[in-house]
Design goal:
Layout (H helix, E strand, L loop, with lengths): L10 H12 L8 H25 L6 H21 L8 H21 L11 H11 L2 H20 L16 H80 L7 H28 L6 E3 H9 L8 E5 L6 E3 L2 H17 L3 E8 L3 E8 L6 H4 L36 H11 L3 E6 L5 E8 H4 L5
């Protein structure tokens, strides 16, 4: 058995909505944000250059520095004219813009001392932006490009600006140490920032799917409540029609031309009342609605029923007189999906057992399949974890913040959704493999969290 895939009803519509939430081909970084960050950088560069030259009195190629800063401002202005601020450039375009920014900063550093200039650290800023908003290959490419620029700055640069008539130069071994520190910082910044952004993106997509799934379950509950209300409201007029039809049938001659129509009218009224009665009964047996209550074993048996086939037996086990619980949409969806997953991987049998005492209610779902793979077991409960044959979960590289996900929607979200929904109800989950083979999922609640008042 492997991690549960998220396959709810209406999957195609849900998949489209999740893809929209998690973004597809567009990048997620707005051009306006890039231009704002570049503008702040250019303003800082101009202030620093002017301060060093006029306040500190250090000699530097002022005109060349201002021209480099002006070129960056012209580039920003051209982008503002060409595109609206809300435009989201593709990963390739954003990568190209960041390359130009790194080149502009590097030229300015070349004019002001190379790696001897303490402002060399500003080259890390664009790498952080790329790692948090582009996919991994572009983030690594920008990191490599930045490392190449740093290496060139270590070897080729103008003297560090200093007081007139004086020269200042750091020892080569110190410059080498700066280069090594920047190289290590680039590597760590790229990987760490990307990993954190990926995990955030992973959780965001998982929570979006969970909320949509819960909304669908609540919608079904609302439909059930509406059906029961309709059955109740239509009962009175149908009763009146039945009485009138009965009186008409009594008054009309039995061999008259309208007698057969009156009999048909009564029969159809009775049929409508039977249909409404079945609707109300179905709603009650399904436990739909905000005030639904069911015995625990009856609730579990209802969830297991759709998964009983000639191939797979689904047995519900527990003592008699099970506690009456509140039937929550979270419970229906989460436990139902866990049973469905167990049935998918079972050889012949799935066992759903319930136990309870004065303080706790415990439900365990076990199958006789191959069990959880060891490499997956430790990650169960995280979004996009699956080893289903023919299915692919998102890896860290694929989970780049702007990486298209349409082809992966629904892969490995099931256990994440089930775990999150069950934890909302106060459950503690344990995943494992049984000693005699097969996978086991155990859910435990404080009895007061599930039991209906007076249950």
């Amino acid at each position: 058995m492997t991690s549960l895939d998220f396959v709810p009803s209406g999957r195609s519509r849900l998949a489209a909505r999740i893809a929209a939430l998690t973004r597809g081909e567009e990048g997620r970084l707005r051009l306006g944000t890039l231009n704002m960050l570049r503008g702040m950088s250019l303003a800082g560069q101009a202030i620093t250059v002017l301060f060093v030259h006029f306040v500190l009195g250090f000699e530097l190629p002022l005109l060349a520095c201002l021209l480099v800063i002006f070129a960056g401002a012209v580039f920003t202005g051209a982008l503002n004219i060409a595109y609206p601020a809300q435009h989201r450039p593709s990963d390739l375009a954003a990568f190209s813009y960041l390359m130009i920014d790194q080149a502009q900063v590097s030229i300015l550093l070349y004019l002001t001392g190379g790696l001897q200039n303490p402002f060399t650290l500003t080259l890390l800023a664009a790498v952080v932006v790329a790692s948090s908003s582009l996919n991994l290959r572009y983030a690594l490419a920008l990191g490599g490009y930045t490392l190449a620029l740093i290496t060139l700055l270590a070897a080729y640069h103008l003297p560090l600006p200093w007081s007139a008539g004086e020269a200042f130069s750091l020892p080569p071994i110190y410059v080498t140490g700066v280069w090594i520190a920047l190289m290590l910082s680039l590597g760590f910044t790229t990987i760490a920032t990307f990993r954190i952004s990926s995990e955030s993106s992973r959780m965001q997509a998982g929570y979006a799917a969970m909320e949509l799934a819960l909304a669908a379950e609540q919608k079904m509950a609302a439909i059930g409540s509406l059906a029961a209300a309709a059955a109740h409201e239509l009962g009175t007029p149908l009763g009146t029609i039945a009485v009138v039809a009965k009186e008409l049938q009594r008054e009309l001659p039995k061999d008259g031309p309208l007698a057969e129509d009156a009999q048909l009218l009564r029969a159809q009224v009775e049929r409508c009342r039977e249909i409404l009665g079945r609707l109300a009964q179905h709603r009650e047996s399904d436990g739909l609605g905000p005030d639904a209550r069911l015995p625990l074993l009856a609730f579990l048996d209802d969830l297991a029923q759709p998964h009983r086939t000639l191939k797979t037996q689904v047995a519900v086990e527990g003592a008699e007189d099970s506690p009456v619980i509140k039937v929550l949409p979270e419970l229906r969806y989460a436990i139902g999906n866990l049973i469905a997953n167990a049935a998918d991987f079972a050889e012949r049998q799935v066992r759903v057992s319930a136990m309870w005492d004065a303080s706790r209610i415990v439900v365990r779902v076990r199958d006789d399949g191959p069990g959880f793979a060891q490499e997956v077991l430790a990650k169960l409960g995280e979004p996009y974890v699956t080893t289903r044959p023919g299915r692919t979960a998102l890896t860290d590289e694929q989970l780049g913040p702007a990486q298209p996900r349409q082809q992966h929607v629904g892969m490995g979200l099931g256990f994440f959704i089930a775990k999150t929904l069950l934890e909302r109800t106060g459950a503690e989950l344990t995943f494992g493999n049984a000693f005699d083979g097969g996978a086991s999922v155990t859910m435990a609640w404080p009895r007061g969290r599930l039991e209906a008042d007076g249950g």
